[in-house]
Design a protein that fits this description.
Blueprint: E1 2-10, H1 14-25, E2 30-33, H2 57-70, E3 74-76, E4 80-85, E5 92-96, E6 101-109, E7 113-116, H3 123-126, E8 131-132, H4 135-138, E9 147-150, H5 155-167, E10 175-178, H6 186-194, E11 198-200, E12 204-209, E13 213-218, E14 223-225, E15 228-230, E16 234-237, H7 240-244, E17 268-270, H8 281-311
Parallel strand pairs: 1-2, 1-6, 2-3, 6-17, 8-15, 9-10, 9-15, 10-11
Antiparallel strand pairs: 4-5, 5-6, 7-16, 12-13, 13-14
The chain binds flavin-adenine dinucleotide.
């Protein structure tokens, strides 16, 4: 069965639901396809969202989904597994894993990203609890405690590890950067030293976990007590739908989009972590809202042009 919507939103996280709220309140026919958990699902609490600080991540989405449903938005617990431009004015066709085929005049992709964690034993087990990545999300929760930062030899991870290590003394005076075989420049060492961050060289063998993170064990057998560790995952956008729709990507693999999230393909927008890995929940929600207003404006423009054309 084919079903046509003004807008199909792929992804029901903060970005997707925030867009859906704006679009349903603009009286658009909207479907939100919700496949899987949001990125921050491993964390017990979400921080830094004004008026929602400390709320469990799933509670935000449950509340948001109810608001969207209250304005007539359709929430579909399914996954988009195929997308293409339609040959007619409907714009786009989206195939769901459950078999439904939806047609949409406009598409907003808000599918988030995947965190590829370093392959150090213990990291996956404690991810989102005492293995963390964002000081602004959970630095306050581990304030004044012995904190580690896990370095790495990959260039991106290396730069982010130094960056995070330089930030963390804001929250604790006891921060150790475990080099994990990465090479630090003299300038980086100077800056870390100036911030009071200690550096311990050598490969990391595993995290010591006993109900909670207890420390970091090095390949040479040394163990150093720590209560939290910040790691630098590789961020991989969930961008299959954007690829299938023919959007342009930059050299690093992120979709190209303007400030409203409009991609290189007319009628296709992207918002949240799928386009901006640095976006926290409040920023992702704001991006969804901005994209929604741009999408509604685009639909108004298209409908206006059709009517003006019909008159002349
Ligand atoms: C451990 C951890 C803790 C964090 N803590 C905080 C915090 O305290 N405060 C904060 O501001 N930020 C925090 N973040 C960041 C936060 O997770 C992101 O800012 C936020 O999730 C981005 O929202 P989003 O809507 O872009 O993506 P998401 O919330 O990830 O939502 C995207 C949704 O799309 C779904 N999806 C993907 N592909 C498809 C498909 N093909 N079809 C249908 N659905 C699909 C996904 O399953 C997911 O449900 C944390 C991140 C992590 C990893």
């Amino acid at each position: 069965m084919n079903e046509t919507y003004d807008v199909v939103i792929v992804g029901g996280g903060a970005a997707g639901l925030s867009a859906a709220l704006v679009l349903t309140r603009a009286r658009r026919r909207v479907a939100v396809i919700r496949g899987g958990a949001p990125r921050n699902a491993p964390a017990q609490h979400m921080h830094g969202f004004l008026s929602r600080d400390g709320m469990p991540p799933l509670d935000l989405l449950t509340t948001g989904a109810a608001e969207v449903a209250g304005y007539g938005g359709e929430l579909v617990d399914d996954e988009v597994i195929g997308a293409e431009s339609a040959a007619d004015a409907a714009g786009f066709t989206l195939r769901l894993a459950g078999g439904r085929v939806l047609r949409a005049r406009r598409v907003l992709v808000a599918t988030g990203l995947r965190d590829v964690l370093p392959e150090v034993p213990g990291v996956r087990e404690r991810w989102g609890v005492d293995v963390l990545h964002c000081p602004y999300c959970h630095g306050y929760e581990v304030r004044d405690r012995p904190i580690a930062v896990l370095g790495g030899t990959d260039a991106g991870a290396r730069a982010r590890a130094v960056h995070v290590a330089l930030l963390l003394p804001q929250w604790s005076a006891d921060v150790i950067l475990f080099g994990n075989d990465m090479t630090l420049s003299a300038d980086e060492r100077d800056r870390l030293d100036a911030r009071g961050v200690r550096v311990i060289e050598g490969a990391v063998a595993r995290l010591v976990v006993d109900g909670a993170l207890r420390g970091v064990e090095l390949a040479d057998g040394r163990a150093v007590g720590r209560e939290a560790i910040f790691v630098t995952p590789e961020f991989v956008p969930n961008s299959a739908v954007l690829s299938e729709l023919g959007c342009d990507f930059d050299e690093a693999g992120w979709v190209r989009a303007d400030r409203s999230g409009h991609t290189s393909v007319p009628g296709v927008w992207a918002a949240g972590n799928v386009v901006d890995p640095a976006a926290q929940v409040i920023v992702a929600a704001g991006a969804g809202s901005a994209a929604a207003m741009a999408i509604n404006g685009d639909l108004v423009l298209a409908d206006t042009q059709v009517r003006v054309g019909a008159r002349n």
